[in-house]
Amino acid sequence: xxxxxxxxxxxxxxxxxxxTGTFSTEVFDSQVVPSSLxxxxxxxxxxxxxxxxxxxxxxxCRFYAFDKAHRMxxxxxxxxxxxxxxxxxxRLERDDESSKANRKQRTDAREIQDYYQxxxxxxxxxxxxxxxxxxxxxxxYHTAGVLFEVLVGVTKTEGVDVVDxxxxxxxxxxxxxxxxxAPYNILPLDSAGxxxxxxxLQEIKAALEALRNIRGLxxxxxxxxxxxxxxxxxxxxxxxxxxxxKDNVANQREHLILLLANVQVALRPAPEPLxxxxxxxxxxxxxxxxxNYRTWCKFLGRQASLQLPEIHHDVQQRKILYMALYLLIxxxxxxxxxxxxxxxxxxxxxxxxxxxxxxxxxxxxxxxxIKPVYGSDDYSFLTKVxxxxxxxxxxxxxxxxxxxxxxxxxxxxxxxxxxxxxxxCFRLGWPMRAEDNxxxxxxxxxxxxxxxxxxxxxxxxxxHLNKTGFVEIRSFWHLFxxxxxxxxxxxxxxxxxxxxxxxxxxxxxxVFNNAVFKKxxxxxxxxxxxxxxxxxxxxxxxxxxxxxxxxxxxxxxxLKLLVALSWVIILSACYxxxxxxxxxxxKTIRSWFGPNGTSPSLYVIAVIxxxxxxxxxxxxxxxxxLRRWSENSDRYPIRLFLWWSQPRLFLGRGMHEGxxxxxxxxxxWILLLASKLVFSYYIxxxxxxxxxxxxxxxxxxxxxxxxxxxxxxxxxxxxxxLWAPVILVYFMDTQIWYSVYSTLSGGVTxxxxxxxxxxxxxMLRSRFRSLPASFNARMVAHEQPLRRSYFFGRKAVPVDxxxxxxxxxxxxxxxNEIICSFREEDLISNRERDLMLVPYSTTSYVxxxxxxxxxxxxxxxxxxQMAAEFDARDPEKRDxxxxxxxxxxxxMRSAVEECYESMKKVLDKIIQGEAEKKIIDELFSEVDKHIxxxxxxxxxxxxxxxxxxxxxxxxxxxxxxxxxxxxxxxxILLQDMFEVVTHDMMIDEARVKLESSHGPLARxxxxxxxxxxxxxxxxxxxxxxxxxxxxxxxxxxxxxxxxNEAAMDVPTNLEARRRIAxxxxxxxxxxxxxxxxxxxxxxxxxxxxxxxxxIYTKKTLHEENEDGIxxxxxxxxxxxxxxxxxxxxxxxxxxxGVWEKKELELQCWASYRGQTLSRTVRGMxxxxxxLELQAFLDxxxxxxxxxxxxxxxxxxxxxxxxxxxxxxxxxxxKFSYVATCQIYGIQLLQNDQRASDIKYLMRSYPxxxxxxxxxxxxxxxxxxxxxxxxxxxxxxxxxxxxxxxRIKLPGAVKIGEGKPENQNHAIxxxxxxxxxTIDMNQDNYLEEAVKMRNLLEExxxxxxxRRPSILGVREHIFTGSxxxxxWFMSNQETSFVTxxxxxxxxxxxxxxxxxxxxxxxRLFHITRGGISKASKVINLSEDIFxxxxxxxxxxxxxHHEYIQVGKGRDVGLNQISLFEAKVANGxxxxxxxxxxxxxxxxxxxxxxxSCYVTTIGFYFNTMLVVLTVxxxxxxxxxxxxxxxxxSLLTRAKLENDVSLQAALASQSLVQLxxxxxxxxxxxxxxxxxxxxxxxxxxxxxxxxxxxxxTFSLGTKTHFYGRTIFHGGAKYRSTGRGFVVRHEKFAExxxxxxxxxxxxxxxxxxxxxxYNVYGASPSSAIAYLLITFSMWFLVGTWLFAPFLFxxxxxxWQKIVEDWDDWNKWIYSKGRIxxxxxxxxxxxxxxxxxxxxxxxxxxxxxxxxxxxRFFLYQYGLVYHLHITHHHKNLSIYGLSWxxxxxxxxxxxxxxxxxxxxxxxxxxxxxLLKGLLFIGFVSIVVVLFLFAHxxxxxxxxxxxxxxxxxxxxxxxxxxxxxxxxxxxxxDSVRALGRTYEFIMGLLLFTPVAILAWFPFVSEFQTRxxxxxxxxxxxxxxxxxxxxxxxxxxx
Length: 1927
Fold this sequence. Notes:
Blueprint: H1 41-49, H2 55-72, H3 81-101, H4 108-129, H5 134-157, H6 165-180, H7 202-211, H8 234-242, H9 246-266, H10 279-300, H11 312-332, H12 340-359, H13 380-399, H14 413-418, H15 447-458, H16 477-482, H17 484-502, H18 514-520, H19 523-541, H20 551-577, H21 584-591, H22 601-610, H23 612-622, H24 624-632, H25 636-645, H26 659-697, H27 716-732, H28 734-752, H29 761-767, H30 771-779, H31 801-824, H32 830-836, H33 853-856, H34 859-869, H35 878-887, H36 890-910, H37 914-933, H38 936-939, H39 945-961, H40 967-985, H41 988-995, H42 1000-1007, H43 1029-1042, H44 1054-1066, E1 1083-1089, H45 1098-1102, H46 1111-1118, H47 1120-1130, H48 1135-1141, H49 1143-1151, H50 1157-1164, H51 1166-1179, H52 1182-1187, H53 1189-1194, H54 1198-1214, E2 1215-1221, H55 1224-1229, H56 1233-1244, E3 1248-1259, E4 1265-1277, E5 1280-1289, H57 1298-1306, E6 1314-1317, E7 1322-1323, H58 1326-1329, H59 1332-1336, E8 1350-1357, H60 1364-1385, E9 1399-1401, H61 1402-1406, H62 1422-1432, E10 1437-1447, H63 1453-1472, H64 1474-1482, H65 1485-1494, H66 1496-1522, H67 1524-1531, H68 1538-1551, H69 1554-1568, H70 1570-1582, ...
Parallel strand pairs: 1-2, 1-6, 2-3, 8-10
Antiparallel strand pairs: 3-4, 4-5, 6-9, 7-10, 8-9
């Protein structure tokens, strides 16, 4: 373990920032000790612990620590050592005299000896004898060991050489015992832990015994300093053989034991005996652990190093050795874990060494017996195997230049791993050759010549490795290259439809016409051309990887190119041969084939031959089994055949699904594509053909500008303007059709899944009776598992009453725990809890099933009133009719029966007198007799029954209070009840019988006094009765049933209702039957954490923002009912009382309503609570279940303690939770509050483990300090961190993306067969946690041809109530994680991993690269790559909706935009990735289509939506300014073009957000009802949801496009707080300027120019249809940030924003000035992507910017000053204006620099002259050149875009501009443009802010949902927080 033997573990390093002022003179412990002095940390900790008991001994401990520190570092050279020693010395000087005064002995030596002896006797001896708690004993031994070390040191310091032998013997004893009580994680494997409950499990014993079989293993002789403790096992042999780290061995030992034990106990049939490890368990684990390795060996044609011995008894040991070796390699591999085939390579050689050593083989290299080539020294595996590979990974990552270098210039994790996909990897050798190409880094720039010279001199080959197999080049051509089949299909379909539409009739049947059919066949020439394009792209994109490409791969690329070119030529020539009257070149080509005939048969034959590969592909598609077999085959003919169709890769083989799944998604896509093509043909294409033909035939064009090609035929420009937007819509609308069909498919599937069957409290009440049976069928384990039910569920099986009662009892335990968790979370009040609980104990108080009181509340009083007022028509059937009415309500019947039986039990218990008992028995006998005879109403008057109920309620109330002072009142109540029954209810005959001289009443009164009043010798009434929990529960329940209180709205909390409804509904859904907890799959939960909030501090909760809102106040208003419930729970009346008494609980209450780590940990720890409860239901006997789970957990008798310990042991066996808090070590060092919060979480949840990276300083062999990095696992022990494992790393962990690296370092500490990934903004619920074992059974269920590798889990977005934006985002995200994921998984089979709470097959993924990818930038969306990787490696991702996990989302517009920007960045990088390329090529056609539209296709199509607007408007600008439109409209009425209108209408639908709304409406309708869905949709539109979704288009488009063009993708922290603050205008401008505002202004200018200069459409409806959506887009993009900004229209805020804007825009940007302080700094940041883009990116940016010159070119010819001249010189003269303006800007800029402060007057004169000159020129032009005011405005429209275009070009060409000295002018021009745009945006907002109602309207618009839950947001945002003063 980490604390035993070997060198002392180093401590956290003090960084430079924290070396000053870090050390307190009050407390010294391990948190502040410099890393180079790590060994004194425990001494200081002990000193702090014993300070109060013995100050002098504490002083001596500190003095000894100081002395030891000085001896370790006498020169104080370590980081922070000098400060630490100074502070410690000051503390010693201060404490010396005061502690000496408290000394009890004469000398310090005697003092510490005396204290040590007493401590040893009291804590060590006594606890040892009493077999005390293990944790206490471990701490006692540790403290005593430290004291003994100090004692020896102090004794020697005082000159006493000999310590008493008795004390020395205790010291030796301590050294031995300390090894025994070493820290442990789950399994205490030392001798002291043998008695622990978990170690008594038979499966653990079996696994442990198997590992300890070391027979025949050649252990080397122990080294001098080795301490061998306990029994050795196979892992110890591997450690001493290969030099693995000690803690790595300990970690993997526990890992392997738990793995084998869990598999062993789950075997069916069960192994006999269980304590012997079954071979099936070993084989199963080995198969899953080595499946990828075996596949790798088979792929490379190598024999797997898994040879087994011939001796049967040694087979099991050898298998365990192989598994242990792999796990040890994996556990120490660090970043190499992202390279699974690299690990296979390492394992392959090390396993071969193991096999050779054990079989006595001789090395053919050395001629000696095989032995490890890297030796067996400590850390040899890390330093000699892992570190060299790690170094090349790190060097390559450094070449990335923090994400700014092109992907093609460095090797990422995938490149390095794919090196091992080729047999060439074995050239690396073993030991690995440092000079191999693998270890060579790419050389750039001037170093290339030097490296070539050095290689020539050393005669080394010049070859080096760069990219491997794939190059990520920034280009949109990746979309075509990855999904070429889709684009080919769409292009060919478009071509065919145009050909058919162009024919005379335009009917689809025209294809059967020979001429038309012949033209349609031309699509194959296009197909060949597209294939040629694909071949060209393959060569271009693989150029930078040519060094790593095999010869055959290069040959294939070249052959593909040649064959594609050949087919283009052949098909074109054959097609020309079929023409009837060719001319020109076509005639010449046809002459090659001879003069005879025009038969197309030659072309048809060529087409058939061309289609042969496609036919074979179709055969593979129809028979997926054949495709899977062929792709996995190693036969050379098959490999050669497949080599042509696709390169042979280790990934992507055998991914095809079974026939049934194939049919489902094929049918889906056939219907979708058919609908799309029909719509496109009739609505988009066919209506355009006629106008296009007329347009092409028209030649008389009157040009209004200088046309360069005035005599061009066919009006190509106009045709392109008309067709381009329609074609873009054609390519884009597949996404729309997918939205429609996925909505329908998801809705139907969800209905069959039985979603939403229970969605209201009424539905819950109506089906509650069937819950116990459903719960028992699905959630309770059975010896014979029930068959899984599908769709409509299984038929009800009749059960006997005893079984039904036991089912209800088990259900009650679970139900009550769920309700109690609701109360703990403050979702319900105490009253609601009591109403919803079922009695914990079912020990026969009543014979009926007891339902929760909220179902029965007011039922009994209603029945009483009904009986009292009942008047039957037939007196003889009065009883039967009354009972029939009561039975019509099942819950009323149950309430009546339970109340009657309970009344009997209560009276029987409290009435002790014999006579009274007889009387009561007589009365009840009489009643029972009449009930059975149906004559109750004939013999008892029911009119007095309400009075009897009231008196009985008073009696029960007294019994509940149990106040002895109420004894007399109880007697009176009993007498009153007796009189009511006998006088008011019983008929005279019955009463006379009771009161007769022979009756029981007369006999009792003749012997004693008054009835019920007897006191002596024994009281007749027992009051108060003895305390009994079950009795108290029953009384409270009876009181609730009898009181006339309605509970129809219980629970009132909406979240509680939602959770109960979903849980109860899920019990009727299809899920696997639950196994016994002990037999279930084990699993872990992993949560990555960096530096987010854990528990809100008091300061955070009280801190008010600028509007006077504190977080706590906000939460109180958002969750008013939960706040009241919290006050009730902590028994406080107000907030101030809570702060005084329950401060920490209040902090937790607030934290549990935010997106904090504490909320996540609490939720995930419900898994353990659920497992313990389920283990109780599995293992408890009948009497234990009847007594209840609560009794078992609280009572302390030996039997129940043993059961409780076993429950906890099983929970430990099945579940572990690791929070990987990456910088926890630094937080400890800084005394950060977050470190204390993490420690609090570990104390609150003892099974929680925290893993972190420890950056340390430690001395190397030369005694110099070096950085070292460790993965550390800690737990809480005795309120302190206890280190369990410390595993050294080869270097810094974070060399790629942070989150996956953080997960990767901690994954070695997880356990089990499954792993759930949970982000720290997620939550969980107890009622969902109980379904986890059902979910895990999905791994063993039938989900197609492959076992599931990822189980998808749905989410509930819990942040939807915060604001309208949060509600929009919540609904959008909910639809994605439910109906969206449902369709992806079934029928499409393309679901991946999206960062959701999915459950991974842990063994599958740890052997295949982990649960995410970590390469810098390219894997920015790291989670989805886990899904890609899993699918490519033949995994299967499913989705399940009977279980859910909570998740928080961003709630403010800026947060949401940052999140969407990050996702868009990630999708841009995915577009370039090899994973998408391989999925696009390895999927069949229809899965490829699904993959496209559900991943990067969604973002590309979103960009096409915006691009369509641009293309349409620029096309219209062209035809309007050129004169084409005016000329053409004279003859052809194009404004009535139906197809164009339809295309634009579909586009407007997208902009209005209906694309998002369709799945959303369907899912809400399924789960909450379609009426609710419709109303929610209407409310969302009224709250401007369309504005929000349209605004999101801009975010997605901008960041997706920029990422592909220029890069710049990065993680964007959104924060997860509550957003109710007002964002400054400047902040919004900075965030949205480039993504929305500039584009909005550009589209607005296009619309203005088109409206002014375009021909007016004849129909206003047509004009609105065409332009309304665009104006809506403009308004949304320009003003949505202010519309959704709290207080965005409050005047005071507007004034402050204006001041802030002016200060920001004019601030100078200097070094260190952040972007939010200076416009110049921000402007530089916005251009940062251009600094790192390549030449291609700069050229592209220049070309795109040239579109702005079109305005000037077109508009200058429309100026009156031109007098309608069309000479090109006019355009040239217009540039003089641009040059003049730029010259003026330059003169002003130079003047400002030249004159500065000394010559300000000169500068003013210069500006004045320039102004006068400008005015003079304008006046002259007005007077002599006929310039008009309209010309001035037109000039603004013309020259403003030109200036912006020049500005963009200057930024793209910045190096050149800086060289010519114009950059300052460019910056000045940029500032001017930014100021103008800011002013245009600010002015409308400021005008609206004048009107107060606008601000009020906006507040209600933003926070309507919050209003509905009690949030008085208007007061909050106005800063009028009400102050409540408490007297």
